[in-house]
Backbone:
């Protein structure tokens, strides 16, 4: 009797250890949210350009339930008319309220580039939106290869930050319809369908997608001549 009790305690301890391990692995799993920088509006105070607009993309990798302590990643920021040549070394810092970039020259030319974009309110969830509230940029030096000499100084004066929304693609497959969207920056999105729009719409979550190449893919059976509408939600 004592022997069986000892075995039971060992099994219980093993199950507890397994459950703890699984819980720890689950809590440690990371998710990634992406955000568009739309209509970055800036003026050039050196007088060479007027009001100009650009765009950008950043990501935020976090542990579910702890968004604030995640890590930001720069994907790109486009501030026309300047495009960063590929042989320059760059450093970036992304926080829930700010992006900064520095460009250090990797060849013989004298050249450097600094910019900062601030936004509010702070990004707090994968679905956060914000307004670009300010910032600045400073482009200085010379580069004979690109015909550039001088100094560009500017102020960031507007724009918005919004969640990245993957684009759906539809393709017929016999009597079925294959719905797909890119896996990049698409953590947490679910495909939903409905047969009508408006207040009476009843959106239903589709089956779990499979990954094919660089896309999430769901195959839906389309019934007769009825309309079917699709959307991605998170």
Residues:
């Amino acid at each position: 009797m004592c022997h069986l009790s000892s075995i039971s305690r060992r099994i219980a301890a093993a199950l507890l250890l397994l459950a703890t391990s699984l819980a720890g692995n689950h809590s440690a799993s990371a998710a990634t949210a992406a955000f568009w920088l739309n209509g970055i509006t800036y003026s050039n105070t050196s007088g060479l350009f007027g009001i100009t607009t650009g765009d950008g993309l950043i990501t935020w990798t976090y542990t579910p339930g702890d968004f604030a302590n995640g890590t930001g990643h720069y994907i790109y920021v486009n501030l026309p008319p300047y495009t960063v040549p590929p042989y320059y070394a760059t450093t970036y810092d992304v926080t829930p309220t700010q992006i900064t970039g520095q460009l250090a020259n990797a060849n013989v030319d004298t050249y450097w580039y600094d910019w900062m974009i601030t936004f509010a309110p702070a990004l707090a969830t994968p679905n956060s939106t914000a307004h670009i509230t300010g910032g600045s940029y400073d482009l200085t030096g010379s580069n004979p290869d690109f015909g550039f000499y001088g100094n560009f100084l500017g102020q960031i004066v507007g724009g918005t930050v919004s969640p990245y929304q993957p684009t759906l693609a539809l393709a017929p497959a016999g009597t079925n319809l294959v719905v797909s969207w890119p896996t990049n920056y698409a953590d947490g999105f679910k495909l939903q369908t409905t047969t009508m729009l408006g207040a009476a719409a009843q959106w239903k979550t589709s089956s779990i997608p499979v990954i094919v190449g660089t896309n999430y893919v769901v195959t839906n059976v389309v019934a007769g001549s009825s309309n079917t509408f699709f959307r991605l939600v998170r």
User: Anything to note?
Assistant: The helical segments are 2-28. Residues 5 and 11 are 10 Å apart (CA to CA).
